[in-house]
Amino acid sequence: MASKVSIVRCSDYDKERVFCAVREGLDLIGGLIGYIKPGDKVFLKPNLLRASSPEEGVTTHPAVVEAVARLVNQAGGQVIIGDSPALPYTKACLKKVYAKCGLIEVAKETGAKLNYDTSSINLSYPEGDLMKMLTLIKVVLDVDTIINLPKLKTHVSAVFTGACKNLFGLVPGCTKAGYHGMLKNIENLSRMWIDIFTFLKQKLNILNIMDGIVGLEGDWKQGSQRKIGVILSSTDSLALDFVACKLVGILPMSTPILRTAVKRRLISGRLEDIEIVGASLYEVFISDFKPATGIATMEGFNRENLTFFQNLMRPFFKRLLTLRPMPNPNACLGCGNCRDVCPQDAITIVKGKAKIDEKACIHCYCCYEVCPEKAIDLKQPWLGRIVSG
């Protein structure tokens, strides 16, 4: 049976307009029936990368979270809202993130519970392709259903970040940085992200609702918000990501997550194998959406198709093609967020400014993602500038 993805137009974040769009999108794929029974614990997992206001467009908008919470309440479920941002997984950090992202108000309006349980658990996963052991936040194993609420965004190394990658937020805080340091390249990271997805899919019901009303394009620095005007829903995280990529003109197979999923036969890689309901792709297609510039790295090449000499030279050319994170001293406030998430301990704070040891840097871009002041610039090496024109 083909996976089903619904596309519903939604022009802005007016609460009632969002509620109607989310409800319509869910009805088009069968509604909450079969996913939520009265008394079920339902974990709403928005994208809460860092403490950002809804107006920045970095995190899932609180109007979307509130709409879903209201619908779960109507179905008789108990709502728990939470995430593990890319910072230390502490109650103080969570409170700051929830407040800045508008979720404390959502909890007050809907009666939802915000998760402050910062315990984690190590889980054996012998069936994993790469990860035979996973560390996840404990609360997610105490619920019946996850409603995954990703934001439609580009990503400097993963090309696109959607429903599948959003589940990486269930890895506690700085443990994510540890995974980056251990796995090092986007190919292995994608295998890990898929392992998290397949593990959770075995254990829990997962429903996906993507905030595509306002997305982020390019390298999503200041001014890169893009009005897209849609809510997408599906029971299949990978099918949802595939359709979202097509909607904004990103080739799905240019994304390492979907390439990995196709290789593992979790998705066919063909649009005709996905049933799209609601609005058509033709109606909502964004023709001039800007991709991330950071994809011009050697990670996109299939090693199996390279000659021995090409593989030998691969690390050299990767250094000359890969964007380098560089702190902007004029914008840096020395908050230490970048230092705290760096998996290689390559960042120090010197005289109130961040400093990166380029030899130790593995170009995971965690620092770039979590900087609240957008003080980490991505610099293109000389060969990368020539190649990209």
Structural commentary:
This protein has 389 residues and is α/β, with parallel strands linked by helices. The chain has 14 helices and 16 strands. Strands 1, 2, 3, 4, 7, 8, 9, 10, 11 and 12 form a 10-stranded mixed beta sheet that branches. The protein has a two-stranded antiparallel sheet with strand order 5-6. It is globular. Residues 295-314 and 383-389 have low confidence and may be disordered.
Keywords:
single chain, 389 residues, alpha/beta, ten-stranded mixed beta sheet, two-stranded antiparallel ribbon, 16 strands, 22% strand, globular, disordered C terminus
**Strand residue content:** 15-25%
Quickly count the helices. 14
Shape category:
globular
**What's the order of the H and E elements?**
EHEHEHHEEEEEEHHHEEHHEHHEHEEHEH
Please mark out the parts with pLDDT under 50 across 5 or more consecutive residues, or reply none. 295-314, 383-389
Please give the share of residues in helix: 25-40%
Average the pLDDT over all residues and give the rounded result.
Answer: 87
